[in-house]
Amino acid sequence: MSDDDVQLRLEAALERHTGRAAKVYGVQRLTGGANRTTMAFEASGAGDGDTRRGYILQIGAQVLDPIEALPQASPAEQARLMMAAAQTGAPAPTVVAILDSADGLGEGYITERVGGETLGPRILREDRFAAARRAMARQCGEILAAIHRVDPAAAPFLKRQDAAEHVAAHRSVVDSYDFKLPALELALRWSAEHAPRGHRLAVLHGDFRTGNLIVGEEGIRCVLDWELGQIGDPMQDLGWLCIRTWRFGGAGPVGGFGAREDLFAAYEKASGHAVDPAHVRFWEAFGNVKWAVDCLLLGTRGVEEVGIERSAIGRRIEEPLWDFFNLIEGREA
After folding, report:
1. Would the pTM of this model clear 0.90, i.e. be above it?
2. CA distance 12 to 304
3. Which of 27, 54, 157, 247 suits a disulfide with 113, CB 3.0-4.6 Å?
4. Pairing relationship of beta strands 202-204 and 230-232 according to DSSP bridges
5. Which of the listed ranges 39-48, 218-227, 299-308 does the model predict with the highest average pLDDT?
6. What is the distance between the alpha carbons of residues 11 and 82, in angstroms, rounded to a whole number?
7. What b-and-e string marks burial along 43-68, b requiring 16 or more CB atoms within 10 Å of the CB?
8. Pairing of strands 202-204, 108-112
9. CA-to-CA distance for 7 and 175, rounded, in angstroms?
């Protein structure tokens, strides 16, 4: 589909979903791929008269799990989850339209565009984000508390897995590839034996980390990439944010920018739930196992597609496993 075709279909879709004629300008493809495409554009008339505003179109879904054992929301489900999260105060993108077959654009949604930076190395190193870095651990705690307040009844489509089930799902994915790496086998066994029991369940973002946050000089403006939304142990979101891969070389254990103590204190204050650091540490450790499994999934797909980038990710599988063993042996990853 050409950009001109996309423009015309976007104009028709905006009119259908907002009830107002719209004019679309400057369609720009931000990412590409076999299953998922993101485009930025401006439009006037879709609620603001002649004023141009920025929007994001996302179509398609990234499907990596060959046996569908892992949580993954469809584009329409992601949009509904973002809408539910916004109701509890989480800075989710504002959904303008959930696309349907009549729009002729594919499965996806349109949101308002939020300005800011998403690249981890820039957020962690550039002077203009110095004040933001000081606030972000606290902001993350508050935002995660807001996401975890979402009523599960507002997102009945989400996969529900407690800690043991989530570990078992990753075990089954690895088994489906008949892939035997001793370090991964030991990590999965340890995780199954140490999975928390009897924890509460909540709506999770599932991929809350540096790289999925839009950041301005004042701090976090928006949370992106809700496709791994699920119902599970809320400490999973806190632990995932802390794994070393998502620090992008930054010194702070929380996303490269902050301290665990600040994250936990803010979460406790905003949620009313106590945080057990050992409980979060399990999820930080298992987060590395999850990323190792993701490396397997992405690397395999890279080989199938003869794609250098995904194949290179596959070759990094030992890195998160090294971090995992450091954590369970009491060393800081």
Report:
1. yes
2. 37
3. 54
4. antiparallel
5. 218-227
6. 23
7. bbbbeeeeebeebbbbbbbeebbeee
8. unpaired
9. 44
Instruction: Assign 292 a pLDDT band (cuts: 50, 70, 90).
Output: very high
Amino acid at 303: V
Q: Give the pair of three-digit tokens for residue 197.
A: 């029991």
- The CA distance from 113 to 241, in Å, is 24
CATH of domain 120-328: 3.90.1200.10
Closest CA to 9 of 129, 22, 138, 144: 22
Residue 137 contacts residue 257 (beta carbons within 8 Å): yes
- Radius of gyration of the chain from Cα atoms? 20
